[in-house]
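ok, trying the design again with the full structure, not the truncated one.
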């Protein structure tokens, strides 16, 4: 303990009271042996509530006379039944199957969190505390939650550091850093444990996590002030805990099926006009590469004017006509926006006069020359400013724009700032991006309808997963950065984000043809797929002709997989379980899966292992059972590690044992009738193995169902719901297939 730090520790139970569904417990700062010990000491007040079953909210306070914290993560309050029981030794607060067990014995303060018979984590003697720095007068609240032997911690947003967070210090503060740094655009104060629970700290302010670093047997987190709150989220396994977390903070909206196709952009600082963009679109068509979305990056507007939402007249003299022509080619249109208003923008004067821009405490508009000259910031705590901003975007939608890339949202001032609603500037720094993306997504849903709205968000905070999809960057054109990008995506997935993309081949620099082709494989095996760069175009013919072939093959493969992928999107929407899943989410009992960060599950049935080496060699792990490569039909058995060398037209894309993988009848677009000419691919059914799948329509509702079971040498497949289908075995086994309208019987010979 530093000499200038004065602590108030939670040491001993000192009483409690129960009011309705709230249990308040008092923890004394020292052992109370007699009446005299109750004087001249501090108390830590611990309040326990439950917003939904199997979730317990814990609030620690020291002094309660300060101002109320208004900006906290929005959570669903289902008002579940809770119960409190008491013995001489302990006090138990229960919600669903989750219990907080408080020790009442002298000098043995602690709270153990248990799911059924399993102990998840606990806080113990002197783990909860208020710390005051006597040199500054500042106070901090601290909590330490135990880590079990062999327990791993994941999540905390899009973090590019090692995937397993044990041994790391992580600050929850959104910064413009990109990959290859500890800074992140999407810092989320939620971690997921391999033991099947999660912890959400309910603050948007400055927050530090020490994960088995400062104290190796616990996760420690601290916040400035006299209050600290967190949620313990129970679950039968990590996937269950993650689903419950999304039930608490919000589940991802279902993106439209067209958004799963290939996105192509102008890149950032390249020179382009309508002739340039049209040549890109025509080039993709000439090479039979299915293209779904064209994105215009920053310079669709005039330099120094970001944002005024006016097309640069010198570059795009007829934007409405251009967008109409692109729509006629079957394309959707996305444009780049941000919440910053340059001084040259006509919106600056308008926003200043109306009070829609963030102001300093002296009443003047906050401005900076960073990013844009004289840049100001829209104040989304002002409802009128929200409507004003939405009106400007609505004009673009009227013109023919289909969706937005919501860039930035993390360059938010914290000193000398006065927000419209009086919010604390420190809290607003991370919370701002929620309000920003909410404003844009709400407009899109109003205009496009539920299931028709999608945006590409750069920054995020708790609850931001409701406004999909999210983009990971800015990565560099190198294999290490490609791996960093995947780690960031996996960490974000552990934070409740269901849909994710990244800049194929890297944002910074220009990739070698080899890397471009390998990244195309990875990028098309993500929920969303975008070609985007900084100073150079990302069209494949700029790399080599083989790149065109590889990109076409991967786009066609993704389109063919859409009956499967869109069902996984519906699952992410309904449950919060992401499309891109770390291996341990699907195989929590396989300890070999716990640290894996160079492979992943895409949905519940496909394992992808991107290739991160020029020589095409890759090493990957398969859990138990027979897995078949969808591309090569090679069968490999797990559990165990496998090594292979692949050219640019294949990679480890393994189908899970006992799976039905639906492959669509079209390879030229992502949005079509998934039940027409669908092939039901059966993967390595063992005797007694069974599987069921659902195939949705474009509205996300189930249209077709299929179930299969194997008994001996006979596999029986039953199909209901209409459509047209056939089946095949992914394994190269001799078989006779007898098919009727609703059933197929496969006899292995």
């Amino acid at each position: 303990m530093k000499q200038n730090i004065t602590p108030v520790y939670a040491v001993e139970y000192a009483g409690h009271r129960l009011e309705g569904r709230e249990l308040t417990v008092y923890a004394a700062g020292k052992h109370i042996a007699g009446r005299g010990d109750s004087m001249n000491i501090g108390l830590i007040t611990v309040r326990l509530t439950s917003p939904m079953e199997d979730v317990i909210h814990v609030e620690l306070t020291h002094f309660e006379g300060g101002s109320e914290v208004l900006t906290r993560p929005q959570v669903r309050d289902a008002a579940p039944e809770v119960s409190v029981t008491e013995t001489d030794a302990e006090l138990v607060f229960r919600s669903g199957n989750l219990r907080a067990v408080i020790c009442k014995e002298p000098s043995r303060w602690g709270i153990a969190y248990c799911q059924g018979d399993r102990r998840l984590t606990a806080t113990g003697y002197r783990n909860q505390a208020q710390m005051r720095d006597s040199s500054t007068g500042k106070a901090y609240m601290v909590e330490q939650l135990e880590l079990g032997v062999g327990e791993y911690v994941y999540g905390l947003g899009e973090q590019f550091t090692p995937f397993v967070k044990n041994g790391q210090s992580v600050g929850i503060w959104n910064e413009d850093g990109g990959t290859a740094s500890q800074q992140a655009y999407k810092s989320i104060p939620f971690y997921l444990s391999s033991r099947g629970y999660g912890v959400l700290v309910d603050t948007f302010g400055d927050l530090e996590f020490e994960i088995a670093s400062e104290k190796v047997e616990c996760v420690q987190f601290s916040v400035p002030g006299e209050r600290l709150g967190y949620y313990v989220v129970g679950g039968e396994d990590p996937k269950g805990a993650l689903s419950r977390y999304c039930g608490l903070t919000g589940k991802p909206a279902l993106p439209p099926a067209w958004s799963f196709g290939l996105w192509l952009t102008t890149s950032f600082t390249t020179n382009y006009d309508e002739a340039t963009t049209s040549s890109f679109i025509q080039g993709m068509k000439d090479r039979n590469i299915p293209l779904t979305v064209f994105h215009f990056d920053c310079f669709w507007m005039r330099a120094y004017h970001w944002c005024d939402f006016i097309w640069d007249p010198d570059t795009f003299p007829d934007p409405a006509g251009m967008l109409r022509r692109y729509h006629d080619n079957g394309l959707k249109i996305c444009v780049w926006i941000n919440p910053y208003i340059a001084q040259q923008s006509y919106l600056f004067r308008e926003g200043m006069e109306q009070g829609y821009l963030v102001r300093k405490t002296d009443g003047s508009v906050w401005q900076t020359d960073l990013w844009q000259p004289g840049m100001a910031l829209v104040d989304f705590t002002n409802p009128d400013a929200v409507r004003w901003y939405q009106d400007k975007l609505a004009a673009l939608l009227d013109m023919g724009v289909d969706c937005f890339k919501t860039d930035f949202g993390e360059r938010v001032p914290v000193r000398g700032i006065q927000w419209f609603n009086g919010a604390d500037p420190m809290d607003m720094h991370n919370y701002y991006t929620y309000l920003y993306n909410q404003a844009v997504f709400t407009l899109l849903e109003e205009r496009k309808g539920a299931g028709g709205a999608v945006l590409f968000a750069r920054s995020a905070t708790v609850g931001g997963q409701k406004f999909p999809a999210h983009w990971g960057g800015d990565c560099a054109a190198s294999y290490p950065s490609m791996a960093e990008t995947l780690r960031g995506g996996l960490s974000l997935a552990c934070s409740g984000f269901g849909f994710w993309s990244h800049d194929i081949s890297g944002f910074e620099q220009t990739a070698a043809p080899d890397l471009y082709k390998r990244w195309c494989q990875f990028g098309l095996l993500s929920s969303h797929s975008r070609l985007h760069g900084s100073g150079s175009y990302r069209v494949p013919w700029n790399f080599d002709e083989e790149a065109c072939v590889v990109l076409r093959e991967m786009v066609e493969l993704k389109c063919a997989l859409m009956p499967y992928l869109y069902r996984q999107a519906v699952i992410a929407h309904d449950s919060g379980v992401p499309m891109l899943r770390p291996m341990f989410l699907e195989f929590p009992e396989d300890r070999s899966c716990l640290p894996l960060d160079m492979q992943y599950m895409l949905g519940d049935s496909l394992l992808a292992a991107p290739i991160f080496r020029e020589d095409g060699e890759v090493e990957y792990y398969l859990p138990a059972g027979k897995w078949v490569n969808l591309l090569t039909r090679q069968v490999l058995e797990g559990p165990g590690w496998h090594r292979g060398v692949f050219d640019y037209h294949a990679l480890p894309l393994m189908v899970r044992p006992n799976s039905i993988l639906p492959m669509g009848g079209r390879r030229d677009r992502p949005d079509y009738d998934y039940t027409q000419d669908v092939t039901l691919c059966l993967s390595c059914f063992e005797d007694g193995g069974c599987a069921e799948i659902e195939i949705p329509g474009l509205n996300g509702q189930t249209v077709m169902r299929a179930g299969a079971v194997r008994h001996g040498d006979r596999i029986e497949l039953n199909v209901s719901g209409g459509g047209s289908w056939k089946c095949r075995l992914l394994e190269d086994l001799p078989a006779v297939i007898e098919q009727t309208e609703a059933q197929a019987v496969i006899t292995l010979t």
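Keeping the full-length input from now on. Residues 425-448 form the longest helix (24 residues).
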